[in-house]
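Annex B. Sample input.
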Amino acid sequence: MARMGIHPSALTFLGLIFSLGAAVAYAKGHFPLAGILFLLAGVCDMTDGPVARITGKSSPFGAFLDSSVDRYSEILVYLGLGAYYVRAQQVEWVAVFLAFSGSLMVSYTRARAEGLGQECHVGWVQRPERLAILILASLLGPRVAGWSLWLLAGLSHLTAAQRIRHVYLVMNKPEPRA
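Annex B, continued. Sample output.
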């Protein structure tokens, strides 16, 4: 992609477009298609940073833009999932809300920790794991995706709690005795 001259921001926004397509497919109940589109969005997300570094186009703003667009991509996907489960009158709409809020908290706790000068890459389900779980489950249809949303809800909030605990422990280390 770098040799082809593709700008890393183009990959970032292409991922957003794939996420929008996945959201529409989820809302219409086309879960395998949504899974494929979400996989393509994930590929774009995983390659924009390396392309930026290889081409010398890496920048703090680029990293900020990438993270921000990633959140919008998640919002779209969860919106599509929510639309499907609400329309189908299935209780999994609650799992969508809980998985979505957990996902945002995982991202927020890391960003807030980094804003305080602390590294925070701990936890069971960071973005790649969340994407993989949802993509694989989507390929198997709405029922399996629904189960995976309950799993993601629990694991995402647990990951956020792990990050809160980590930052607490790091920031409250006892001073070494002289």
